[in-house]
Automatic annotation (TrEMBL):
PANTHER family: TUBULIN POLYGLUTAMYLASE, TUBULIN POLYGLUTAMYLASE TTLL9-RELATED. It comes from Marchantia polymorpha (Common liverwort). Transmembrane segments: none annotated. This is Tubulin--tyrosine ligase-like protein 9. Coiled coil: none annotated. Signal peptide: none annotated.
Length: 452
Protein backbone atom coordinates (compact mmCIF):
# COMPACT_ATOMS: atom_id res chain seq x y z
CA UNK A 1 0.00 0.00 0.00
CA UNK A 2 1.10 3.55 -0.66
CA UNK A 3 -0.07 4.83 2.71
CA UNK A 4 -0.21 3.26 6.17
CA UNK A 5 -3.46 3.66 8.15
CA UNK A 6 -1.83 6.38 10.24
CA UNK A 7 0.16 8.16 7.53
CA UNK A 8 0.41 11.91 7.72
CA UNK A 9 -0.96 12.27 4.18
CA UNK A 10 -4.15 10.34 4.96
CA UNK A 11 -4.81 12.27 8.16
CA UNK A 12 -4.39 15.57 6.35
CA UNK A 13 -6.48 14.30 3.42
CA UNK A 14 -9.43 13.56 5.68
CA UNK A 15 -9.22 17.13 6.96
CA UNK A 16 -9.02 18.41 3.39
CA UNK A 17 -12.06 16.38 2.35
CA UNK A 18 -14.11 18.02 5.10
CA UNK A 19 -13.01 21.46 3.90
CA UNK A 20 -13.82 20.60 0.28
CA UNK A 21 -17.34 19.49 1.15
CA UNK A 22 -18.01 22.89 2.71
CA UNK A 23 -17.06 24.71 -0.52
CA UNK A 24 -19.19 24.86 -3.63
CA UNK A 25 -18.20 25.88 -7.13
CA UNK A 26 -14.55 24.94 -6.68
CA UNK A 27 -12.18 22.68 -8.56
CA UNK A 28 -11.92 19.63 -6.32
CA UNK A 29 -8.59 18.44 -7.71
CA UNK A 30 -7.07 21.90 -7.59
CA UNK A 31 -8.34 22.68 -4.07
CA UNK A 32 -7.42 19.28 -2.67
CA UNK A 33 -3.95 19.51 -4.20
CA UNK A 34 -3.39 22.99 -2.81
CA UNK A 35 -4.73 22.27 0.69
CA UNK A 36 -2.68 19.11 1.14
CA UNK A 37 0.37 20.85 -0.27
CA UNK A 38 -0.05 23.71 2.20
CA UNK A 39 -0.10 21.22 5.08
CA UNK A 40 3.38 20.09 4.03
CA UNK A 41 4.88 23.55 3.74
CA UNK A 42 4.15 24.08 0.05
CA UNK A 43 7.07 22.02 -1.27
CA UNK A 44 5.23 21.31 -4.53
CA UNK A 45 4.40 24.94 -5.31
CA UNK A 46 7.86 25.62 -6.71
CA UNK A 47 7.52 23.08 -9.49
CA UNK A 48 3.96 23.87 -10.61
CA UNK A 49 2.38 26.78 -12.42
CA UNK A 50 0.71 29.16 -9.98
CA UNK A 51 -3.01 29.72 -10.50
CA UNK A 52 -2.47 33.46 -10.24
CA UNK A 53 -0.06 33.40 -13.19
CA UNK A 54 -2.59 31.81 -15.58
CA UNK A 55 -4.47 34.35 -17.66
CA UNK A 56 -7.73 33.25 -19.23
CA UNK A 57 -10.08 34.73 -21.76
CA UNK A 58 -13.67 33.55 -22.15
CA UNK A 59 -16.08 34.44 -24.93
CA UNK A 60 -19.13 32.97 -23.15
CA UNK A 61 -19.61 35.06 -20.00
CA UNK A 62 -23.17 33.95 -19.19
CA UNK A 63 -22.60 30.19 -19.18
CA UNK A 64 -21.18 27.61 -16.82
CA UNK A 65 -17.69 27.61 -18.33
CA UNK A 66 -17.16 31.22 -17.18
CA UNK A 67 -18.12 30.25 -13.62
CA UNK A 68 -15.69 27.33 -13.70
CA UNK A 69 -12.84 29.47 -14.99
CA UNK A 70 -13.45 32.11 -12.33
CA UNK A 71 -13.53 29.43 -9.62
CA UNK A 72 -10.05 28.33 -10.69
CA UNK A 73 -8.89 31.76 -9.53
CA UNK A 74 -7.07 32.34 -12.76
CA UNK A 75 -6.69 35.95 -13.90
CA UNK A 76 -9.20 37.14 -16.48
CA UNK A 77 -8.01 39.20 -19.44
CA UNK A 78 -9.64 40.81 -22.46
CA UNK A 79 -6.42 40.93 -24.43
CA UNK A 80 -6.58 39.56 -27.96
CA UNK A 81 -3.31 37.64 -27.63
CA UNK A 82 -1.93 37.95 -24.10
CA UNK A 83 -3.65 34.92 -22.59
CA UNK A 84 -2.70 31.41 -21.55
CA UNK A 85 -6.11 29.80 -21.99
CA UNK A 86 -8.94 30.90 -24.29
CA UNK A 87 -12.44 29.42 -24.39
CA UNK A 88 -13.84 30.95 -27.55
CA UNK A 89 -16.51 30.61 -30.16
CA UNK A 90 -15.57 29.32 -33.60
CA UNK A 91 -15.85 32.80 -35.12
CA UNK A 92 -12.57 33.89 -33.51
CA UNK A 93 -10.91 30.83 -35.00
CA UNK A 94 -11.97 31.82 -38.51
CA UNK A 95 -10.83 35.42 -38.11
CA UNK A 96 -7.56 35.20 -36.20
CA UNK A 97 -6.17 31.71 -35.63
CA UNK A 98 -4.26 31.29 -38.89
CA UNK A 99 -2.72 34.76 -38.62
CA UNK A 100 -1.12 34.62 -35.18
CA UNK A 101 1.72 32.79 -33.51
CA UNK A 102 0.95 31.11 -30.19
CA UNK A 103 3.46 30.33 -27.47
CA UNK A 104 3.99 26.69 -26.60
CA UNK A 105 1.90 26.80 -23.43
CA UNK A 106 -1.19 28.59 -24.83
CA UNK A 107 -4.33 26.47 -25.19
CA UNK A 108 -7.44 27.02 -27.28
CA UNK A 109 -10.71 25.08 -27.29
CA UNK A 110 -11.13 24.28 -31.00
CA UNK A 111 -9.13 22.52 -33.68
CA UNK A 112 -8.62 24.44 -36.92
CA UNK A 113 -10.93 22.36 -39.13
CA UNK A 114 -13.16 20.97 -36.38
CA UNK A 115 -16.05 21.05 -38.89
CA UNK A 116 -14.81 17.82 -40.48
CA UNK A 117 -16.45 16.14 -37.50
CA UNK A 118 -19.18 18.59 -36.55
CA UNK A 119 -20.68 19.73 -39.86
CA UNK A 120 -23.39 17.22 -40.68
CA UNK A 121 -22.45 16.61 -44.32
CA UNK A 122 -18.70 16.42 -43.63
CA UNK A 123 -19.27 13.96 -40.78
CA UNK A 124 -21.19 11.61 -43.07
CA UNK A 125 -18.63 12.07 -45.86
CA UNK A 126 -15.80 11.05 -43.52
CA UNK A 127 -17.70 8.08 -42.10
CA UNK A 128 -18.51 6.80 -45.61
CA UNK A 129 -14.91 7.29 -46.74
CA UNK A 130 -13.59 5.39 -43.73
CA UNK A 131 -15.93 2.51 -44.45
CA UNK A 132 -14.84 2.37 -48.11
CA UNK A 133 -11.17 2.52 -47.15
CA UNK A 134 -11.58 -0.42 -44.80
CA UNK A 135 -13.39 -2.38 -47.50
CA UNK A 136 -10.59 -1.69 -49.99
CA UNK A 137 -8.07 -2.90 -47.41
CA UNK A 138 -10.14 -6.10 -47.07
CA UNK A 139 -10.99 -5.25 -43.46
CA UNK A 140 -14.58 -6.21 -44.05
CA UNK A 141 -15.45 -7.03 -40.45
CA UNK A 142 -14.39 -3.60 -39.21
CA UNK A 143 -16.01 -1.89 -42.20
CA UNK A 144 -19.31 -3.54 -41.29
CA UNK A 145 -19.12 -1.84 -37.90
CA UNK A 146 -19.61 1.54 -39.58
CA UNK A 147 -23.36 1.01 -39.58
CA UNK A 148 -24.31 3.47 -36.84
CA UNK A 149 -25.42 6.42 -39.00
CA UNK A 150 -28.68 6.64 -41.00
CA UNK A 151 -28.75 6.43 -44.77
CA UNK A 152 -27.76 9.95 -45.77
CA UNK A 153 -27.35 12.11 -48.88
CA UNK A 154 -25.87 15.60 -49.22
CA UNK A 155 -28.01 18.13 -51.06
CA UNK A 156 -27.84 19.57 -53.60
CA UNK A 157 -24.80 17.53 -54.72
CA UNK A 158 -26.40 14.09 -54.31
CA UNK A 159 -29.98 14.99 -55.14
CA UNK A 160 -30.17 12.58 -58.08
CA UNK A 161 -28.88 9.67 -55.99
CA UNK A 162 -31.35 10.54 -53.25
CA UNK A 163 -34.32 10.56 -55.64
CA UNK A 164 -33.41 7.08 -56.89
CA UNK A 165 -33.16 5.81 -53.32
CA UNK A 166 -36.37 7.51 -52.26
CA UNK A 167 -38.27 5.80 -55.08
CA UNK A 168 -36.78 2.48 -54.02
CA UNK A 169 -37.34 3.00 -50.27
CA UNK A 170 -40.15 5.49 -49.65
CA UNK A 171 -41.43 6.37 -46.18
CA UNK A 172 -40.42 9.19 -43.89
CA UNK A 173 -37.21 11.15 -44.51
CA UNK A 174 -35.78 14.13 -42.63
CA UNK A 175 -34.07 17.27 -43.97
CA UNK A 176 -31.41 19.08 -41.93
CA UNK A 177 -29.42 22.22 -42.83
CA UNK A 178 -25.74 21.45 -42.36
CA UNK A 179 -24.79 24.76 -40.79
CA UNK A 180 -27.53 25.29 -38.23
CA UNK A 181 -28.15 24.03 -34.70
CA UNK A 182 -30.94 23.81 -32.11
CA UNK A 183 -33.35 22.20 -34.56
CA UNK A 184 -33.59 25.20 -36.87
CA UNK A 185 -34.58 24.43 -40.45
CA UNK A 186 -35.29 20.73 -39.84
CA UNK A 187 -38.43 19.15 -41.32
CA UNK A 188 -39.82 15.70 -42.11
CA UNK A 189 -41.43 14.69 -45.37
CA UNK A 190 -43.01 11.67 -47.06
CA UNK A 191 -43.37 12.81 -50.69
CA UNK A 192 -40.92 14.16 -53.25
CA UNK A 193 -43.41 16.90 -54.02
CA UNK A 194 -42.71 18.32 -50.57
CA UNK A 195 -39.06 18.60 -51.54
CA UNK A 196 -40.04 20.27 -54.80
CA UNK A 197 -41.95 22.91 -52.86
CA UNK A 198 -38.96 23.43 -50.58
CA UNK A 199 -36.63 23.81 -53.56
CA UNK A 200 -38.93 26.39 -55.09
CA UNK A 201 -39.30 28.32 -51.86
CA UNK A 202 -35.55 28.52 -51.37
CA UNK A 203 -34.69 29.23 -55.03
CA UNK A 204 -32.80 25.98 -54.90
CA UNK A 205 -30.58 25.07 -57.84
CA UNK A 206 -27.84 22.47 -57.78
CA UNK A 207 -25.51 24.76 -59.74
CA UNK A 208 -26.10 27.69 -57.39
CA UNK A 209 -23.00 28.01 -55.15
CA UNK A 210 -24.96 30.18 -52.71
CA UNK A 211 -27.60 27.57 -52.02
CA UNK A 212 -27.87 26.42 -48.41
CA UNK A 213 -26.54 22.88 -48.06
CA UNK A 214 -28.71 20.22 -46.45
CA UNK A 215 -28.48 16.56 -45.68
CA UNK A 216 -31.44 14.25 -46.13
CA UNK A 217 -31.64 11.10 -44.02
CA UNK A 218 -33.93 8.11 -43.73
CA UNK A 219 -35.91 8.87 -40.60
CA UNK A 220 -35.63 6.33 -37.78
CA UNK A 221 -39.30 5.44 -37.41
CA UNK A 222 -38.99 3.08 -34.42
CA UNK A 223 -37.11 4.94 -31.68
CA UNK A 224 -36.88 3.59 -28.16
CA UNK A 225 -39.65 5.22 -26.13
CA UNK A 226 -40.06 5.87 -22.42
CA UNK A 227 -43.51 6.86 -21.32
CA UNK A 228 -44.47 6.96 -24.98
CA UNK A 229 -41.99 9.78 -25.65
CA UNK A 230 -38.97 9.98 -27.90
CA UNK A 231 -35.55 10.99 -26.59
CA UNK A 232 -31.94 11.25 -27.65
CA UNK A 233 -28.72 11.25 -25.63
CA UNK A 234 -26.22 14.06 -25.15
CA UNK A 235 -22.77 12.64 -24.42
CA UNK A 236 -19.57 14.62 -23.86
CA UNK A 237 -16.22 13.73 -25.42
CA UNK A 238 -12.94 15.56 -24.87
CA UNK A 239 -10.22 15.25 -27.53
CA UNK A 240 -6.79 16.37 -26.37
CA UNK A 241 -4.95 15.36 -29.54
CA UNK A 242 -5.65 13.85 -32.97
CA UNK A 243 -2.08 12.80 -33.80
CA UNK A 244 -1.73 10.67 -31.82
CA UNK A 245 -5.42 10.36 -31.00
CA UNK A 246 -6.12 10.87 -27.31
CA UNK A 247 -9.68 11.27 -26.05
CA UNK A 248 -11.79 10.89 -22.93
CA UNK A 249 -15.48 10.07 -22.52
CA UNK A 250 -17.52 11.66 -19.73
CA UNK A 251 -19.55 9.26 -17.57
CA UNK A 252 -22.49 11.58 -17.06
CA UNK A 253 -24.78 12.92 -19.73
CA UNK A 254 -28.50 13.25 -20.19
CA UNK A 255 -31.47 12.15 -22.24
CA UNK A 256 -33.51 14.91 -23.88
CA UNK A 257 -37.20 14.09 -24.14
CA UNK A 258 -40.03 15.47 -26.21
CA UNK A 259 -43.06 16.86 -24.41
CA UNK A 260 -45.48 15.22 -26.83
CA UNK A 261 -46.03 11.48 -27.25
CA UNK A 262 -44.39 9.91 -30.27
CA UNK A 263 -46.56 9.30 -33.30
CA UNK A 264 -45.98 8.39 -36.92
CA UNK A 265 -49.49 9.36 -37.96
CA UNK A 266 -49.74 11.44 -41.09
CA UNK A 267 -51.10 14.44 -39.23
CA UNK A 268 -48.17 14.37 -36.75
CA UNK A 269 -45.28 14.16 -39.21
CA UNK A 270 -44.83 17.93 -39.32
CA UNK A 271 -45.11 18.37 -35.54
CA UNK A 272 -41.63 19.23 -34.22
CA UNK A 273 -42.77 18.75 -30.61
CA UNK A 274 -43.28 15.07 -31.47
CA UNK A 275 -40.09 14.42 -33.42
CA UNK A 276 -37.34 16.86 -32.34
CA UNK A 277 -35.86 16.69 -28.85
CA UNK A 278 -33.96 20.01 -28.97
CA UNK A 279 -34.52 22.07 -25.82
CA UNK A 280 -34.86 25.23 -27.90
CA UNK A 281 -37.94 23.65 -29.47
CA UNK A 282 -39.40 21.74 -26.53
CA UNK A 283 -39.34 24.75 -24.18
CA UNK A 284 -42.15 26.26 -26.26
CA UNK A 285 -44.46 23.28 -25.70
CA UNK A 286 -47.68 24.08 -23.78
CA UNK A 287 -46.84 21.31 -21.28
CA UNK A 288 -43.24 22.38 -20.68
CA UNK A 289 -42.30 22.65 -16.99
CA UNK A 290 -39.33 24.95 -16.40
CA UNK A 291 -38.69 23.45 -12.94
CA UNK A 292 -38.27 19.87 -14.13
CA UNK A 293 -37.17 20.53 -17.73
CA UNK A 294 -37.14 17.79 -20.36
CA UNK A 295 -33.93 16.02 -19.35
CA UNK A 296 -33.19 12.81 -17.50
CA UNK A 297 -29.71 11.87 -16.29
CA UNK A 298 -27.86 9.24 -18.28
CA UNK A 299 -27.36 7.22 -15.09
CA UNK A 300 -31.12 7.17 -14.37
CA UNK A 301 -31.83 6.16 -17.95
CA UNK A 302 -29.32 3.33 -17.80
CA UNK A 303 -30.75 2.01 -14.53
CA UNK A 304 -34.27 2.17 -15.99
CA UNK A 305 -33.23 0.23 -19.07
CA UNK A 306 -31.42 -2.40 -16.98
CA UNK A 307 -34.64 -3.09 -15.05
CA UNK A 308 -36.43 -3.70 -18.37
CA UNK A 309 -33.79 -5.48 -20.44
CA UNK A 310 -31.16 -6.79 -18.05
CA UNK A 311 -27.61 -5.68 -17.41
CA UNK A 312 -25.99 -7.61 -20.26
CA UNK A 313 -28.08 -6.07 -23.05
CA UNK A 314 -27.81 -2.55 -21.68
CA UNK A 315 -24.05 -2.87 -21.19
CA UNK A 316 -23.80 -3.99 -24.80
CA UNK A 317 -25.78 -0.93 -25.90
CA UNK A 318 -23.54 1.47 -24.00
CA UNK A 319 -20.44 -0.28 -25.30
CA UNK A 320 -21.82 0.13 -28.84
CA UNK A 321 -22.31 3.85 -28.18
CA UNK A 322 -18.74 4.10 -26.97
CA UNK A 323 -17.50 2.21 -30.05
CA UNK A 324 -19.47 4.45 -32.42
CA UNK A 325 -17.92 7.54 -30.84
CA UNK A 326 -14.42 6.11 -31.14
CA UNK A 327 -14.94 5.12 -34.78
CA UNK A 328 -16.25 8.59 -35.62
CA UNK A 329 -13.03 10.09 -34.24
CA UNK A 330 -10.92 7.60 -36.18
CA UNK A 331 -12.76 8.58 -39.37
CA UNK A 332 -11.58 12.20 -39.10
CA UNK A 333 -8.19 11.61 -37.50
CA UNK A 334 -6.26 11.99 -40.74
CA UNK A 335 -8.13 15.07 -41.96
CA UNK A 336 -8.32 17.24 -38.84
CA UNK A 337 -5.22 19.42 -38.49
CA UNK A 338 -3.31 18.50 -35.36
CA UNK A 339 -2.15 21.44 -33.26
CA UNK A 340 -0.57 21.13 -29.83
CA UNK A 341 -2.36 24.31 -28.74
CA UNK A 342 -5.80 22.85 -29.39
CA UNK A 343 -8.26 20.64 -27.58
CA UNK A 344 -12.00 20.26 -28.10
CA UNK A 345 -15.08 19.32 -26.14
CA UNK A 346 -17.74 17.72 -28.33
CA UNK A 347 -21.39 17.09 -27.63
CA UNK A 348 -22.49 13.83 -29.28
CA UNK A 349 -26.19 13.28 -30.02
CA UNK A 350 -27.16 9.61 -30.06
CA UNK A 351 -30.56 8.05 -30.75
CA UNK A 352 -31.45 4.55 -29.53
CA UNK A 353 -34.03 2.53 -31.46
CA UNK A 354 -36.39 -0.08 -30.08
CA UNK A 355 -33.92 -2.85 -30.98
CA UNK A 356 -31.35 -1.17 -28.65
CA UNK A 357 -29.21 -0.07 -31.57
CA UNK A 358 -27.49 3.34 -31.25
CA UNK A 359 -27.53 5.83 -34.11
CA UNK A 360 -25.16 8.80 -34.35
CA UNK A 361 -27.24 11.85 -35.26
CA UNK A 362 -24.64 14.63 -35.08
CA UNK A 363 -21.63 16.01 -33.24
CA UNK A 364 -21.61 19.53 -31.80
CA UNK A 365 -18.44 21.64 -31.64
CA UNK A 366 -20.02 24.13 -29.25
CA UNK A 367 -22.42 22.12 -27.10
CA UNK A 368 -24.67 24.29 -24.96
CA UNK A 369 -23.02 25.17 -21.65
CA UNK A 370 -26.07 26.99 -20.32
CA UNK A 371 -27.99 25.21 -17.55
CA UNK A 372 -31.79 25.13 -17.39
CA UNK A 373 -32.14 23.14 -14.14
CA UNK A 374 -29.99 22.74 -10.99
CA UNK A 375 -29.19 19.17 -12.02
CA UNK A 376 -28.10 20.36 -15.46
CA UNK A 377 -25.82 22.95 -13.90
CA UNK A 378 -24.25 20.41 -11.53
CA UNK A 379 -23.47 18.07 -14.42
CA UNK A 380 -21.98 20.76 -16.66
CA UNK A 381 -20.02 22.43 -13.86
CA UNK A 382 -18.34 19.18 -12.85
CA UNK A 383 -17.71 18.15 -16.45
CA UNK A 384 -16.13 21.48 -17.39
CA UNK A 385 -14.02 21.51 -14.24
CA UNK A 386 -12.70 18.09 -15.24
CA UNK A 387 -11.99 19.39 -18.75
CA UNK A 388 -9.71 22.03 -17.25
CA UNK A 389 -8.03 19.42 -15.06
CA UNK A 390 -7.28 17.30 -18.14
CA UNK A 391 -6.03 20.25 -20.18
CA UNK A 392 -3.72 20.70 -17.18
CA UNK A 393 -2.60 24.30 -17.38
CA UNK A 394 -1.18 23.93 -13.86
CA UNK A 395 0.89 20.90 -14.99
CA UNK A 396 -0.19 18.70 -12.13
CA UNK A 397 -1.23 15.51 -13.91
CA UNK A 398 1.18 12.57 -14.09
CA UNK A 399 3.04 12.07 -17.36
CA UNK A 400 1.58 8.58 -17.65
CA UNK A 401 -1.92 8.46 -19.11
CA UNK A 402 -4.64 8.12 -16.48
CA UNK A 403 -7.56 5.77 -17.06
CA UNK A 404 -9.84 8.16 -15.19
CA UNK A 405 -9.66 11.86 -14.39
CA UNK A 406 -12.68 13.12 -12.48
CA UNK A 407 -15.73 11.98 -14.41
CA UNK A 408 -13.79 11.37 -17.63
CA UNK A 409 -12.70 7.85 -18.61
CA UNK A 410 -10.04 7.17 -21.20
CA UNK A 411 -11.51 6.39 -24.60
CA UNK A 412 -8.28 6.02 -26.58
CA UNK A 413 -4.61 6.98 -26.33
CA UNK A 414 -2.60 6.03 -29.40
CA UNK A 415 0.51 7.63 -27.97
CA UNK A 416 0.56 5.51 -24.82
CA UNK A 417 3.63 3.48 -23.95
CA UNK A 418 3.49 -0.27 -23.46
CA UNK A 419 3.04 0.23 -19.74
CA UNK A 420 0.23 2.74 -20.25
CA UNK A 421 -3.32 2.02 -21.39
CA UNK A 422 -4.10 2.66 -25.06
CA UNK A 423 -7.83 2.09 -24.72
CA UNK A 424 -10.21 0.13 -22.54
CA UNK A 425 -10.66 -3.25 -24.28
CA UNK A 426 -13.53 -4.54 -22.14
CA UNK A 427 -17.11 -4.79 -23.38
CA UNK A 428 -18.04 -2.85 -20.26
CA UNK A 429 -18.41 0.92 -20.54
CA UNK A 430 -18.44 3.37 -17.66
CA UNK A 431 -20.74 5.59 -19.70
CA UNK A 432 -23.89 6.14 -17.65
CA UNK A 433 -22.39 4.60 -14.51
CA UNK A 434 -22.24 6.35 -11.15
CA UNK A 435 -19.95 9.35 -11.44
CA UNK A 436 -17.47 9.15 -8.55
CA UNK A 437 -15.49 12.20 -9.72
CA UNK A 438 -15.18 13.77 -6.25
CA UNK A 439 -13.63 10.66 -4.74
CA UNK A 440 -11.37 10.06 -7.74
CA UNK A 441 -10.03 13.62 -7.84
CA UNK A 442 -9.19 13.56 -4.13
CA UNK A 443 -7.38 10.25 -4.53
CA UNK A 444 -5.48 11.57 -7.53
CA UNK A 445 -4.41 14.69 -5.66
CA UNK A 446 -3.19 12.58 -2.72
CA UNK A 447 -1.24 10.29 -5.02
CA UNK A 448 0.38 13.19 -6.85
CA UNK A 449 1.55 14.88 -3.71
CA UNK A 450 2.73 11.63 -2.14
CA UNK A 451 4.82 10.82 -5.23
CA UNK A 452 6.49 14.23 -4.89
Amino acid sequence: MLYSPHSRVEIQSARVARQIRKKKNTSIFQKCYRLINNQFGGEMAQTKMSKNSIKFRCFWKTTTIYEVLKARQWVETESELDWDFFWSDVGWMYEFFDHIHLADHQRFNHFRNYYELTRKDFLIKNLKRMKKTLEKEDKLEEAANYNFFPQTYALPAEYGLFVEEFKRIPGVWIMKPVGKARGRGIFLFTRLSQISEWKKDHRWKSENPQVENYIVQKYIESPYLIGGKKFDLRIYVLVLSYAPLKAYLYRSGFARFTNAHFSMKKEDIANKLVHLTNFSIQKHAPTYNSKTGTKWSLHSLKMHMITKHGEAKVNELFHDIRSAILRSLLSVQNVIIQDKHCFELYGYDILVDKALKPWLLEVNASPSLAADTPQDRELKYGMLDDVLTLVDMERRLPTQTSLQVGGFDLLVDQGATESSPKTVPSLFSYLGCYNDRDKQLKQMAKAQLASG
